[in-house]
Design a protein that fits this description.
By secondary structure, this protein is of the alpha/beta class. It is built from twelve helices and 16 strands. It has helices at 11-21, 24-27, 31-36, 72-88, 99-106, 129-143, 164-177, 189-199, 207-210, 249-253, 291-301, 317-330; strands at 2-6, 40-48, 54-61, 93-96, 114-115, 118-119, 125-126, 155-159, 181-185, 203-204, 216-219, 238-242, 258-262, 265-268, 288-290, 332-334. The chain binds NADPH dihydro-nicotinamide-adenine-dinucleotide phosphate. NADPH dihydro-nicotinamide-adenine-dinucleotide phosphate (NDP) is lined by residues 101-102, 129, 132, 159-166, 185-188, 191, 220-223, 243-245, 263-264, 290-292, 312.
């Protein structure tokens, strides 16, 4: 059985979802009430691969909302309690979605294996970042040519280059795709220098320096809501893959020659009978989902009950290829610009 741990995008959205699901006390509750609310297993689902294999899964709402990010103890408790619920529910492999994997890593929750009487078994969990990174790399490779961007001549800025997903995307784009130049953007200098040394190239630039030069921009950082981007300073055409969370770039820059795609989102080959993606504002919530969630499904389809994506900056090209091949085999495709042809299995 696979599991997905997610959360609402805001307290307001969580309250309206609570009303729909029949929890009126939460619909009216303030942040303090939500802080003490336990995780909920809200939905079970069964899905069938293109190969014909059917698997069962469950969605667990951690009852975390981004407004809790500054409350360290609450955020920590929310993630660990949701993991405990997943394990106690007998789920073999669960993806940590949205902010939950970032909280797990940044708050070093590896040290917190014992939750009451439950010793968390790490092999039951995955961040899903290997599949997310592979999907984002695919979104670059498939969609840039449709805009007339020749990747072998192109400059690709990766904002959040030193992160878990960003560093994997950089490895793929430099070693597999062969882009002309990577522009590496993050705030801390040392990890950027380490990444540059590992890649054997790439130019370290500030966000402001990189954007006007980039034919493609991959955003894999959670950026401040207040960030403003000079749309006029961007190249035309410019492909932007909005892989951060929340996904808000289309409202900031899309238009003219700037094309924004929601990054790290996949579409399944047939409808999934669930409600959960409606709240994630997917264009087609019956079929579209976060690639990190899809990773748990893929590991279940493949019988790989292991923490496939774990820790930071451990994602290998071999594992991206493995999960990418499974993704295509079981009927997922990355979302992109309209009418972009999809790869065949042999292309992976
Ligand atoms: P990490 O924490 O590993 O990496 C974040 C990266 O962003 C680091 O390179 C960090 O470097 C950089 N960064 C953070 N803030 C800024 C800033 N203001 N300006 C420039 N760089 C910045 O995160 P992950 O790789 O795990 O995830 C990256 C993003 O992808 C997150 O927003 C996450 O929510 C999202 N995500 C999306 C998924 C999907 O859509 N399917 C699935 C999983 C994650 P530094 O601190 O040095 O600036």
């Amino acid at each position: 059985m696979f599991g997905l741990i997610g959360h609402s995008t805001s307290l307001e959205q969580a309250r309206s979802k609570a009303l729909e699901l029949g929890f009126p006390e939460y619909a009216e509750g303030d942040l303090d009430l939500w802080c003490v609310a336990p995780p909920q297993l809200v939905e079970t689902v069964s899905i069938t691969s293109r190969t014909g294999k059917t698997i069962e899964g469950a969605y667990i709402d951690s009852v975390f909302v981004p407004e809790m990010l500054s409350r360290f103890k609450t955020a920590r408790r929310k993630v660990l309690n949701a993991m405990e619920l997943a394990q106690k529910s007998g789920i073999d492999i669960t993806a940590l979605g949205g902010f939950t994997s970032i909280i797990f890593e940044n708050f070093n929750l590896l040290k917190s294996q014992q939750i009451r009487s439950t010793a968390l078994e790490w092999e039951r969990f995955t961040t899903g970042n290997t599949h997310t990174a592979w999907v984002i790399a695919q979104q670059v490779e498939l969609n840039a040519p449709a805009l007339g961007i020749d990747l072998s001549q192109a400059k690709v800025a990766v904002v959040g280059a030193t992160g878990d997903i960003g560093s994997a995307v950089c490895r793929w784009l430099s070693q597999k795709t062969g882009v002309a130049e990577l522009l590496l953007v993050a705030r801390q200098p040392q990890p950027l220098l380490d990444l540059q040394a590992e890649l054997g190239g790439g130019r370290i630039l500030s966000l402001e320096e990189s954007l006007p030069q980039a034919d493609v921009v991959v955003w894999v950082a959670s950026l401040p809501q207040g960030l403003s981007i000079e749309a006029d300073s961007l190249r035309s055409p410019c492909l932007m893959i909005d892989g951060g969370y929340p996904k808000n770039l289309d409202t900031k820059v899309a238009g003219g020659g700037v094309h924004v795609i929601k990054g790290g989102i996949v579409e399944f080959w047939q409808d999934i009978g669930w409600q959960m993606m409606e709240v994630a504002e997917m264009d087609n919530p019956r079929r579209q989902l976060f690639a990190c969630f899809a990773e748990a499904m893929l590991l279940e389809f493949e019988g790989l009950h292991t923490n496939f994506s774990w820790g930071r900056n451990n994602i290998t090209l071999a594992n991206m290829e493995l999960i990418g091949a499974a993704s295509l085999r079981h009927g997922f495709r990355s979302i992109g610009l309209n009418q972009v042809p999809q790869p065949q299995l042999a292309a992976v």
